[in-house]
Amino acid sequence: MAARREKPPLELACRALCQLRRQPEDTRWRGAPMWHSVVHEAMVVLEAALTKEELARVVPGYPFPDLYDHKQRADG
């Protein structure tokens, strides 16, 4: 059994927004998981709360985040 992937803070924030809105996080919407639809809002909050250095450390690919989608990746 493969080890579970640790979710980065941006993904956790997006999933929390989905939960707050009672939206299913992993349901496909426009070809991607629902949590991808709130990335902009989560980034606004993280950018307000963290320095650019912290953002670069906790958001993979910042300022253009790498959004994980196990159905689009061969390694997922």
List keywords for this structure.
76 residues; mainly alpha; single chain; two-stranded antiparallel ribbon; 5% strand; 2 strands
Number of DSSP strand runs: 2
Structural class: mainly alpha
Mean pLDDT, rounded to whole units?
87
Low-confidence stretches: none
Number of helices: 3
Shape: globular
Report helical residue fraction.
25-40%
Q: What's the gyration radius in Å?
A: 13 Å
Order of helices and strands: HEEHH
Biggest sheet statistics? 2 strands, antiparallel
Q: Give the DSSP E fraction (strand runs of 2 or more residues).
A: 5-15%
Describe the strand arrangement of the main beta sheet, using strand numbers: 1-2
The CA-CA distance between the termini, in Å, is 13 Å
Describe this structure in words.
There is one protein chain. This protein has three helices and two strands, in the order αββαα. It has 76 residues and is mainly α. The chain has a domain at 9-58. It has a two-stranded antiparallel sheet with strand order 1-2. Helix 1 (9-20) packs across helix 2 (39-49). The longest helix is centred in the first third of the chain and has 12 residues, at 9-20. The two termini are 13 Å apart. The mean pLDDT is 87.
